[in-house]
Structure formats: C-alpha cells, structure tokens
Amino acid sequence: MVKQRVESVVEGKIRCDACPVLCYIAEGRSGACDRYANEGGTLVRLDPFTILEQSDQAVPFLDGSDWDGGIAKGGQVFVTAIGAGTTYPDYKPAPFIVGQTYDDVDMVTVVTEGIFSYCGAKVKIDTDRYIGPERAEVRVDGEAIGHVMTGEYGSQMLSLGGVHHLTGGSKKEGRVTCDALLKLCNRQAVTVKVDEGAEVVLQAGAPPVVDGVREERMRVGCGSATIGMFAKQWVDHVDEVVVVDDHITGVLSEHQAGKLLDVKPTGIKVRGRKSTPGRYFQVANPGTGWGGTDITDPLSILAPFKPKDAWAGMRMLMVSTTGEQWGYFVLDAALEPVAAELPDALRLSVERIEENCEPSVVSVLFMGGAGGSLRAGVTENPVGLTRSVKDALTHVSCGGAPCYIWPGGGITVMADVLDMPENAFGYVPTPALVAPIEFTMRRADYAALGGYMDAVRPLDEVLGEAERREAAAAGARWPMDGGNFRGNL
Amino acid sequence: MTYERPQANRSGRRLHLSHGPINLILEAAGEAHAVEAAYQRAIAAFDELLEALVVDLPVLRKPLCGAPVSSPVALRMCAAVRGIPVFVTPMAAVAGSVADYVLAAMRGEGLRRVVVNNGGDIALWLGEGEGYRLGISDHVRPGFVGMITLDAACGVATSGWRGRSYSLGIADAVTVLARSAAEADVLATLIANSVDLPDSPLVQREAACALSPDSDLGARLVTVGVSALPDANVTKALDSGVACAQGYIAQGRASGVFLCLQGQTRVAGEAFALE
Ligand code: SF4
Fold it and tell me: Residue A342, exposed/middle/buried by CB under 10 A (0-12, 13-18, 19+)?
C-alpha cells in the first residue's frame, strides 16, 4: 500500500483528498469508497498501482515525493497489474497497454487485474503429521473452503477455493472462502480445520502449525531410507534401531543395510504389516505423535523380546524420521526395555537426522484461469491470445512473478505468492479474487494477435501513474527475459 | 488540489461510471442511436454530479431543517425523506437519488428500457410491454429464493447491516420496491433499522462516529456483528420489521418489501408475490 500525503489530521482522524468527498477516516477504518484507509495515522491506498523494478535492493514503497517517475538508474522497470484496475466484465481495452524497449526490442505489456471466480490456492504443507483423510473438507469458520488432496513426498496437500465454494454454495461459504483465499494469497495466516483431522495454521513461507504444534522440520526420508542412510553410523554403538514413520517404519537388524553390516538378529517383533525385510507399513494410525503417527510411547509398537534371539544388555535406539523424538533403551535381565541415557555417538546421529530434515514451510500457489472477458481486454480475438501464449510468443506473469501455464485449452496459470509483491490480491463481493496478470510480447506479435495497437502507451507516461515501486523477487526471471519467448529476442 | 476525475468505461451493451465512492452500471435498450445518445447524456450528467453534491453534504448529513441545498441529487434526497416521522437524514437516500437522477437524464425517444444500478440500488424505466426480472436472494441460501417481474418504472433498493452503509438494525437484507430508487433506498434503510432486538447481548454495536467520523448517524449505535440467534428471536425481530413495512405500504410509499434475517424470510405487500 502506498502512503499518501495527508492534508489534515483531526483527533487522530485523517482526511482523504483523493476525491471531492474528502472523507475523514478513523484509525483502522476505510473511507466511503473502501479504497483508502487510515493505517496508524497514515492514509494508504488499498489497491495501489504497482511497478516492479529490477534491482538487488528492495525498495518497499514509493513515497510520492522523492521519486520522479523515471526509471531507476541501471534498473529495468516492469509495470505490474497490481492496482491497475480491471476491465470487468469486458470493458475494452485493458486498463494499461504499455510499450517499452527491452534489449532493443519493442515490447508490449498488457496489464490488467483479472477478476477470477475460477480460482483457488494449492497449498503444500511440509509435514508428515496427519492433517486429515484425503478428500476431507477443509473448513474456516465452519464453512467448507476446499479439501485434502493426495499427499506428496514429505508434504500434505490442500486444494482450496474454486468456483463451487466461491459461488456454488451459500453466501457465507462464498464469503468465507474468498476471504481465506485473499489472506493466503496476500501472505497472511489462516487457520483451517480439516474434517476428522487437525487444525492447521497456514501462512505462505512460514512453518505450518498443526493442532497447536509448530512444525519445524520435514523428514529426511521414510524409516527404511533413514536406516539406509545412517546404518553405518549406528552399527558400532547400538544393537537395534527402529525408525518410526507414518509410512514405512524401518528396523536395522532386519533391513538390507543392517544385514550387509552383519548386524545380529534381535528377534524384534514390530506391529504393523511387514513389507520387505526390515520395512513395516502401518505400525500405528496417522496422528501428531512420533513420525506422523499417533504413537506417544514408542515401545507400544513392539512385542515382548524373546530369549531365543534377544539378550540382557541389548541396546536399542528408537527414533522418529525427523529426529524430533527418540528413546534409548537397554534390555534388563527380564528382557524388558529400560530407558537409558543416550550415548554421545548416537546423540550425534539423532541430531544429524534432524539436521538433514529441511525446514517445514507452507507454500501457496495461486491458480486461476483467464476467462474470455479478461482475454478480450488484450485482443479483439481472445483465442489469439491463448494461441500466442501456447506458442510461447506471449509471456504471462502475475504481479511480475513467473507463472506455470497449464497445457491444454484456456490460460490456466499457477504462481507462487511469495514471488509476487505483498498485497497483490484484492477481491470483489461477487465473491471472486482480483489478481494481477500481465501479458508481455513483442510489439509485432501483439499486432499479429489482434491487439489494441492504438491503446499502447509509452512506458514513461504510465510510470507517472505508478503509486508503488517494488523490487523483483530475488532469482525470479525477469518478465521480459529473452528466454521467456520463442525465437530469442 | 487535484481530485480523481469521473471515469466512464464501455462494457459491451453497458456503461460503467465511477467517481469516488459512486459506481454505476447502466444499461439502455432500444434503437442503437438512441442508446448511444442516452449514454452520452448519462456521461454529461455524471460529470459534475459528485462535485456538486459534496457542496451540500453538511446539510444532507442532518435531519431536514429547511436549510437550502442546490445540487439536483441533493434536492431528490431531501424530497425522499420529507414527511418521515422517525429519525432519518437525506443521506439515507443518496444511492437511490444518484440512480434516479442519472436515469432521468438518460430517458428519451427510441428507448425500450433503461436500468441504472448503483451498487444494488436500482432505478428502472420500462416502455410499453417491457418486463424486467429481478432475482431475490435471502443472503443465506445459494442462488435466488424467487424472482419477481417488474413491468413499470420503479426503484428497488436493499439495506442491511452487512452493507457498506451502517444500519441501526440487524436485518441481513431488506429489499424494497417503490416508485423511485430514492424512496426505496430510504424505506429499505428504515425498515432494516426496525428489524431489531434492542438491548440483545447477541448483537454487537458501535457508535457510528467512532467508525466513520463523517457519519450522519453521529453517536447512534450501529450494528457491527450479530451472533447466531434463536429462532424465536429471529421471528420477533422480523415481526417488528414487517409491522414497520406494512405501515409504509398502507401509506402508499412502498409496494412490496422482502425481509431476511438468518435464513428466515418475510414478504409484505402485493408487489412482492414471488414467482
Ligand atoms: S476515501 Fe474514497 S470516497 Fe472518501 S475522499 Fe477518499 S477517495 Fe473519496
């Protein structure tokens, strides 16, 4: 949001002078049009028109007074659609069609904020903890806003939003869904409850919080893989290792890796369904205990040791796949495991498991489809734009961030909200999300697809209207980079 | 000081006009040149509308007191609240009056119908034999709970505590059909105010001036939240709203009123026989 000069302040209320109404706005409230707000005594525009700047230095907000609207030295500028406004339902042409030269090639960027009723967020939650059964509804405020998808390696996946929750259910369902999507896409935290599952706090780029427990690490591999990776470090210090995991629990003495290192059989009996030697499925139910299971006492998955193979003094390490939980036991004369102090060598290996588990984060990808009317703001022949995108002649970005374009018909995009400037999203009460989308192409290609050539405005002119300047995300490819287009620029 | 200017955008058959807090969607039907001319008249009427209106705002934010106003929209606002015996300021008619004013500017030869939608407050003019179907939502169930067909010039407006302007009551929505959008706007506001549970702990209220220093409602408490209510309370609140609505219908000010609160709906007046 951009700070505006404030004309007058009366008892903490500020006056907006963006239109003749001249609203006085109280702290934390917005004016009559809902476009300007008072944030801590400062007047901010809720949907500032934003440009992206290629530089390594982050320039958070433009303070109107100290920037002349010109291009920062050495930096390239890209006009994003954030705050550009929309042409909904199909006002023509798009709010800004910008002409500029990049690497001596005449480029055109068509900038519009799209109203997406077909949109949602795909959320990846790095955790093995059980968050709920596949296909279970995900709720906010009791309203279904999406569901649990098939899990991925080390992560749980949610599909949120979509046209059915936004407009196909009750008014409240639509409102709650839109609000949750808006917050997630603008990198704010949202608490969701999964039917027959956990309560999860989601925030792009932050660790997930599952049932009040903050997830720190992803697992390094399943229990069996962990045995394979660490067997060598264990054989000299311990007689048996059980790596407890929600998917596959590994047992050192039976595992291929243990056999190759001549680990003696211990006669251990692990609950669950045996797969190949040393690998067990379903040792417990999914949960928020050890290694994504509901286990709180690891010994509960073991049958009593028998004198045939086990022996008094036998040393056993039990550890979860993230190294967050562990127990070290020595069998007594009755072959009962008794908790003992973890020897330093083993402590090191446990720490190493934990260290090899990457930090858990929540990733939020915005996904939406550019409908016919949005495309009509770019060209008189909307399918021409679709073809141009498929032919890699037109590059699509969201708030300047790179997008993945799905194959097949239409223009269905996915973009990481962390690559986009903050607060890039808005909403309309329909309810639907308003997301920035830019189409960049060579001027000649724009003409060829039936573009509004008369509406193309020079960059300098549009820059004068920019209200916010943002640095491009580090490492993200610049929207006009030649590699984005077929036939190098 | 440079304010933003009014904006006009064409969208297929419609015209979108916006300036500051005003957002209008216009739709005229008829002979092509007549539609075009109507849109040009709308743009001309809209150009100075807000700048003229703001001059009168200090007067419009108080109950009628005889102080003169000069802008055409302000005159309509004052007319719409004349003779109303309860507390109300002309601001209750602002959205409807803007719609009526632009509609009046657009009317002309060669048109079959004209619709001006100002954020849900609608001014409508229909030629001979024309009909306009309106979907009615109860703001709880998806889609519409019914459709009504309008066949004459009229105004429709909706008010409720969830809307952009403040409400003294707890109705999710009250939709009123009247002769003009300005009148419908005032009545929707007043009837929505009367759907209420005074002193109920289940209703959260705040002083209007704390939320918005300019509010015409001053220190009056406006609804900012309503908890889930027992059925009996919903019925009681709606009863009081229906009684209020019937009063205005008996006076001939409204021809139909549709009320909804937490999934319960009521209808008053003949005009709102839902299809
Ligand atoms: S807040 Fe909106 S309506 Fe109020 S003065 Fe500013 S621009 Fe105008």
Answer: middle
**Residue B72, both tokens:** 């055409």
- Token reading at A40: 């801590």
What is the number of the ligand 1 atom nearest to the C-alpha of B4?
Answer: 7
pLDDT digits (tens, 9 = 90+) for A353-404: 888 888 899 999 999 988 766 777 788 888 888 888 888 888 898 888 888 9
Lowest mean pLDDT among A59-63, A88-92, A272-276, B167-171: A59-63
- B77 by DSSP, 3-state: which? helix
Q: B7-272: CATH homologous superfamily?
A: ApbE-like domains (3.10.520.10)
For residue A104, the 8-state DSSP code is: T
Strand, helix or coil at A93?
coil
Q: Is A202 on the interface with B (CB under 8 A)?
A: no
State how far the Cα of A79 lies from the Cα of B128, in Å rounded to an integer.
50
At A65 the pLDDT is 29
ipTM of this predicted complex? 0.82
Searching chain B, which residue's CA lies closest to the CA of residue A25? B212
A269 at the B interface (CB within 8 A)?
no
Residue B243, pLDDT above cutoff 90? yes
Distance CA B184, CA B122 (A): 9
DSSP A165: I
Domain edges within chain B: 7-272
- Does residue A455's CB lie within 6 angstroms of at least one atom of ligand 1? no
